[in-house]
């Protein structure tokens, strides 16, 4: 099995979750794969009220829109700086 540290979802915020919500899937993945610090970044390409990441989980980040600052924000988040 391969393990992953970071998952990035790029969405138009019209997301069908399927059988499990992405934030719950990450929590399950962390436990099953023993990757306690796995992170989830959800990038909404349209500005509307959305949250796919769990706002109470410091290992999950919602990003809305994209500009020149976003790659550095993602970089810092992945490294645990923010």
Strand and helix layout:
Elements: E1 6-11, H1 22-33, E2 39-44, E3 60-64, H2 70-78
Parallel strand pairs: 1-2, 2-3
Short description:
The chain is an alpha/beta fold and 82 residues long. The protein is built from two helices and three strands; from the N terminus they run βαββα.
Number of strands: 3
Rounded to the nearest angstrom, the distance between the terminal CA atoms is: 29 Å
Based on the structure, what is the oligomeric state of the protein chains?
Answer: single chain
Query: Can you give the mean pLDDT?
Result: 88
Largest sheet: 3 strands, parallel
Net shape: globular
Q: Look at the helices and sheets and give the structural class.
A: alpha/beta
Continuous helix count: 2
Q: What string gives the helices and strands in order?
A: EHEEH
Major sheet: arrangement of strands: 1-2-3
Low-confidence stretches: none
Beta-strand percentage? 15-25%
What does this structure look like?
The chain has 82 residues and is of the alpha/beta class. It has one domain. Helices cover 26% and strands 21% of the residues. It is built from two helices and three strands; from the N terminus they run βαββα. A three-stranded parallel β-sheet has the order 1-2-3, covered by helices on one side. The longest helix has 12 residues. The mean pLDDT is 88.
What distinguishing features does this structure have?
alpha/beta; 3-stranded parallel beta sheet; 2 helices; 3 strands; 26% helix; globular; RNA binding; TROVE2; VWFA domain-containing protein; vWA_Ro60; vWFA_dom_sf
């Amino acid at each position: 099995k391969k393990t992953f540290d970071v998952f990035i979802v790029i969405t138009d915020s019209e997301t069908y979750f399927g059988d499990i919500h992405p934030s719950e899937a990450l929590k399950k993945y962390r436990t099953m794969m023993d990757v306690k610090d796995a992170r989830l970044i959800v990038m909404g390409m349209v500005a509307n009220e959305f949250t796919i990441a769990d706002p109470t989980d410091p290992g999950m980040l919602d990003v809305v829109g994209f500009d020149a600052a976003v790659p550095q924000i993602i970089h810092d988040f992945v490294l645990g700086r923010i």
